Amino acid sequence: MRQNLKKFRRTVGTLMAVLLWLTGGLETLRAQDALPAVPAPHTVVPGCDTIGLYSQRTDTLVVPFIALPQAFRQVGENVLTDSIGVLRPFWEKLRLLRLKASTDTLRIVHVGDSHIRGHIFPRTTGTLMQQAFGELTYTDVGINGAFCTTFTRPDRVAKIAALHPDLLILSFGTNESHNRRYNSMLHYRQMDELLRMLREKMPDVPILMTTPPGSYDSSRRRGRRRTYTVNPRTAIAVQTIHRFADNNGLAVWDMYDILGGAQRACLNWQEAGLMRPDHVHYLPDGYTLQGSLLYQALIKAFNDFLNNEL
Question: pLDDT tens-digit profile of 46-96?
Fold first, then answer.
């Protein structure tokens, strides 16, 4: 009987110890801090680092979808070429502008020939950039029939510098390649002279070059209708622009190659009904498409910069 009583007491004691241990454990669990609530998107919670989670969502922009005409074939990816990151200072300024961390107005200046003088192409890009970033100006400076040498004058370079660009875009090549005596070495030297003068006035401004969209040669024999053939010198001029940009640390947007190159660029524009009867210039819808595509390429490059910074 006594032995049974001792066993009973030991069992009770063991049960009490287990109960006390469990009670203490529960109290310990109840004493922990409550788990923090998951912050809602775009909400800053003290003590919660949201940069890694939300910076991509809030900083990057939606890349616009651009439906090309059905006639367009053999098109490539619409991207900028900037192998050494010459545009990085501009992207950083854009990032700060979008975050409203800068009160400065960003200035883009687009210089070129009649494609720029017609205003539709650059102003399409400019309007879209302003809608995306706010305090940004986009100024076009174009001259009909201009070669890059047209701007190798102190007064014209000074006019460009007076605009204080944060990004300078140069669009030439159509008139250079339209010359049947086109010479690649001469073209290269002419670009070199213009760049030298621009660098003297604006040594730190990043420069983006664009290639010509493509054009046709025309001819007419006596008593016959005028005929048009694809200008074969455009492709050589585009190669020269690339070589010059690579050698001088400039970025390039190769509209010619992106939209079909030597095989299809001119045919794409012509078959889509977007070229003027002179087969050199473009209808308003054509220039609007060019401006939209440049904007799309800029946004892609901006997003790439942000993603590489994360």
Answer: 333 333 333 344 579 999 999 999 999 999 999 999 999 999 999 999 999
What is the reported pTM? Answer: 0.81
Buried b (16+ CB within 10 A) or exposed e, 75-91: eeebebbbeeebbeebb
Cβ atoms of 298 and 108 within 8 Å: the answer is no
* HEC sequence for the chain: CHHHHHHHHHHHHHHHHHHHHHHHHHHHHHHCCCCCCCCCCCCCCCCCCCHHHHHHHHHCCCCCCCCCCCCCCCCCCCCCECCCCCCHHHHHHHHHHHCCCCCCCEEEEEEECHHHHCCHHHHHHHHHHHHHHCCEEEEEEECCCCCHHHHCCHHHHHHHHCCCCCEEEEECCHHHHHCCCCCHHHHHHHHHHHHHHHHHHCCCCCEEEECCCCCEEEECCCCCCCEEEECCHHHHHHHHHHHHHHHHCCEEECHHHHCCHHHHHHHHHHHCCCECCCCCCECHHHHHHHHHHHHHHHHHHHHHHHHHHC
pLDDT one-digit tens code per residue, 173-187: 999 999 999 999 999
Q: How crowded is residue 44: how many other Cβ atoms within 10 Å of its Cβ?
A: 8
Instruction: Enumerate the β-bridge partners of residue 134.
Output: none
Averaged pLDDT of the chain: 85
Cα–Cα distance for residue pair 246/23, rounded to 1 Å:
74
Angle at 82 between CA 253 and CA 88, to 5 degrees: 115
